Amino acid sequence: MSTTTAPDPSVAIPLSSAQERLWIANQIDPGSSAYFVARAAWITGPLQVGLLRASLAAVMARHEALRTRFPVIDGQPLQVVEAEAIPEFEIT
Hints:
Layout: E1 13-14, H1 17-28, H2 49-62, E2 68-69, E3 72-73, E4 76-81
Antiparallel strand pairs: 1-4, 2-4, 3-4
């Protein structure tokens, strides 16, 4: 059995070549939605906001990509995987 260690949010690592291409595309056209996949759903009945938040938090805990941010340090884009992330959303 292999073990994994929790990411260290104080460590910024270089982007992969694929990430760097997407970062460059975003710098060229920052308002583009070319790489976004949007989904919408109608929910009937009362929404249990706490349960929704807990469900999203569980998915985020499972997938590093959903906890990764991309700061630019000294002009260089880097990636930082947060140890945990709290989902933020607005219900309208």
